[in-house]
Write a structure and sequence with these properties.
CATH topology: TIM Barrel
CATH superfamily: Aldolase class I
Radius of gyration: 19 Å
Number of strands: 10
Helix content: 40-55%
CATH class: Alpha Beta
Strand content: 5-15%
Number of domains: 1
Number of helices: 13
CATH architecture: Alpha-Beta Barrel
Strand order of the largest sheet: 3-4-5-6-7-8-9-10
Order of helices and strands: HHHEEEHEHEHEHHHEHEHEHEH
Distance between the termini: 33 Å
Shape: globular
Structural class: alpha/beta
Length: 359
């Protein structure tokens, strides 16, 4: 998707086109690419597009709003920025810009553990902002258990309100686009909250074993954490059922944006099956391919409480920094409100599966 736009961006797709003009081939390969043949990357988007809405008429919109209840608190919108690594590769202000934009629009932020800005600095910018959304920190299991505990303590002390444990990426996916581009982190950009990576020994499977958390370890981590713990990367209903007994606070239905295992199911396909498995016992979030307010309505109708936005924030950030991300989120909020009104639905929390044709 190349070529300059002659008018200001009016949707996420416009921002994608502008970002491709601004990012170099190295950064574009990293942010835009997926694993393997990028089948899952494409399917994520196609699955939301394939769903059809079945609006109602004659319903009252009195008291309509987009707020949602999540982890015992009410938030202005069901929109959060997903954890994306190395945002300073897209714009010098990186994670700071994303955090400020999210707070300005009442949206949440999940900061990547591979952020290129210190987690304490990001939290200090927005934690005291009235009207902001959730402030969460994403966590990977580290080889050194002490480092995992240290990250949790730092996040808690800094003011983050929950941990999002990514469980679907013990190793990186085979990303052909990155390899063709010879991807390297540019000078001055690194995962500043983590120690420098060390060369792992053994096969890839043996290295993966050092990062996999079994159910007993997940349960222990949830019990020991001073913050609510959500699992990110759940696609199988049996795993969702198993999570019910582990003390986790929520699940994120995610295939890592198609960046880990190619040909996995789309998140739109998995979401209603996960929702049926947990039966409302845990809040669900979903990411992967969400680009429109109508996608958000579909996600909420299929059982999600909120959605996470990954690549769109990168496109807006690369295009215009914090104002770009804030504008993107405003566009999505407006699209969500328009879709809710036209579906005859008075609010985010009152959407049912009957709004989806065939649902």
């Amino acid at each position: 998707m190349g070529g300059q736009l002659n008018t200001p961006p009016v949707n996420a797709g416009d921002y994608q086109a502008l970002a491709q003009e601004r990012l170099d081939a190295n950064a574009w390969a990293y942010f835009a690419g997926g694993a393997g043949d990028e089948i899952t990357l494409r399917d994520n988007r196609a699955a939301w597009e394939a769903l059809r809405l079945l609006p109602r008429i004659g319903t009252s919109l009195a008291g309509a709003d987009t707020s949602v209840e999540l982890l015992g608190r009410r938030w202005p919108t069901p929109l959060l920025l997903a954890p994306v690594a190395y945002l300073r590769m897209a714009h010098p202000d990186g994670e700071r810009a994303a955090a400020l934009a999210a707070a300005a629009q009442g949206c949440g932020l999940v900061l990547s553990s591979q952020a290129s800005t210190r987690l304490e600095d990001v939290a200090a910018l927005v934690r005291d902002e009235a009207g902001r959304g959730p402030l969460w920190f994403q966590l990977y299991r580290q080889r050194d258990a002490g480092l995992t505990r240290e990250l949790i303590t730092r996040a808690h002390t800094a003011g983050f309100e929950a941990l999002v444990l990514t469980v679907d990426a013990p190793v990186s996916g085979a990303r052909d686009r990155e390899r063709r581009a010879g991807f390297r982190l540019p000078p001055g950009v690194s995962a500043v909250n983590l120690p420098p990576p060390s060369a792992g020994g053994g096969t890839l499977l043996q290295q993966a074993a050092e990062h996999v958390l079994d159910w007993a370890a997940i349960e222990a981590l949830a019990a020991a954490s001073p913050l609510p713990l959500l699992l990110k990367g759940v696609l199988h209903p049996d795993d969702a059922r198993r999570a019910l007994s582990c003390g986790v606070a929520g699940l994120v239905v995610s295939n890592h944006g198609g960046r880990t295992l190619d040909t996995t199911v789309s998140t739109a396909w998995a979401l209603p099956r996960i929702a049926d498995a947990v039966g409302g016992a845990l809040p669900l979030l979903v990411d992967g391919g969400i680009r429109r307010g109508t996608d958000v309505v579909k996600a909420l109708a299929l059982g999600a409480t909120a959605v996470l936005l990954g690549r769109p924030q990168v496109w807006a950030l690369a295009t215009a920094g914090a104002p770009g991300v804030a504008h993107l989120l405003r566009l999505l909020r407006d699209e969500l409100e328009i879709a809710l009104a036209l579906c005859g639905c008075p609010g985010s929390a009152r959407i049912g599966r009957g709004l989806i044709a065939g649902g």
